[in-house]
Amino acid sequence: MDELSAVGVVSEEVPTHRHGAGRPSLLVLPQAEAVPVLAVDVGVEQVTVALAGVGGRLLGVRGWTLRRGQGSPEEAVEEIARARVDLVDELGCEPTRAGVSVPGVVRRSDGLVHEAPNLHWTGVPFGALLGDALGLPVDVGNDADLGALAEHTRGVARTSQDVVFLSADVGVGGGVILGGVSLRGSGGYVGELGHMVVNPTGRQCYCGCRGCLETEIGEDALCRALNLAAGTPRPVIVAELRSLAADGELALHRLSGFAEWLTLGLTNVLNLLAPELVVLGGLLAVLPPAVVSSVTTEVRRRSLVGRAAGSVRLATSALAGDAALVGAAELAFERVFAVS
Ligand SMILES: [Zn+2]
């Protein structure tokens, strides 16, 4: 703490309200502006850039929308660099490094995006491209991995050590934290939960398999379940889900097929990873409470691990749309503090 205090990352203050006798403990307060980082969430339909301070505070945010999958990597780099200049002008503090979330298969060591199918990016050295443009060290991670990190550090999984984050947007992704540590796997590619095959006679997935979980619980599947046209704008889908929140019976009826696929996927996840908590992100965070409750009961009943542990919980993300952005900031902070 003395070292962090000496470089201005935290301040120590005597609390104004004292409880009990004896010398009061000093309050340690993060100083948000001390070593800000640039956090970037490259989404399929939106890019968000923020200057984030220690403690996870977003000091300033810029964002723009894309037509689904229409943004080239070069355009993204240009826009992100412009947003950085804008944010620095506004806030008067320079980022020390950048963390980036991409919805795809990302090599952690150098930020190479192998495949980001919904962005139509293949083999893009995004970490290097953005690093050159910004003149900063850049760390790139998969959006669901970073969502898991965000939930673990700032969200509903703060007190849990064994966590799976499952997020459904256009694609479905997963992030895994076991024993308090992010699971990496070879190359950092672990956690493609959306591509577990759950329905071998189901729809063709772009990955080459048929009936991946993504084809049954992704945005398009949710639209089918809600009788909405494919490509319905996100706010309309969210509004429809919210309208079902008040009527549990109706929600269970309309989403029974969808809930069954989610249950099947999560039963596999529980048996494989034995999390104490599953955090539902993206559109899954807006599922009606009756559906979440029913899926919880079913996965506890159907999986061996669920029956043995008995207490696995499902929670909806409190960070919602910011999970990947907050995770990108945490990814950068991990490195800031690792080298400090
Ligand atoms: Zn697939």
UniProtKB/TrEMBL annotation:
**A Pfam family matched by this chain, by name?**
ROK
Report the superkingdom from the record. Answer: Bacteria
Gene3D superfamilies from the UniProt entry: 3.30.420.40
- In residue numbers, the region (Disordered) covers 1-23
Family membership noted in the UniProt record? Belongs to the ROK (NagC/XylR) family.
Kindly provide the name given to this protein in its UniProt entry.
ROK family transcriptional regulator
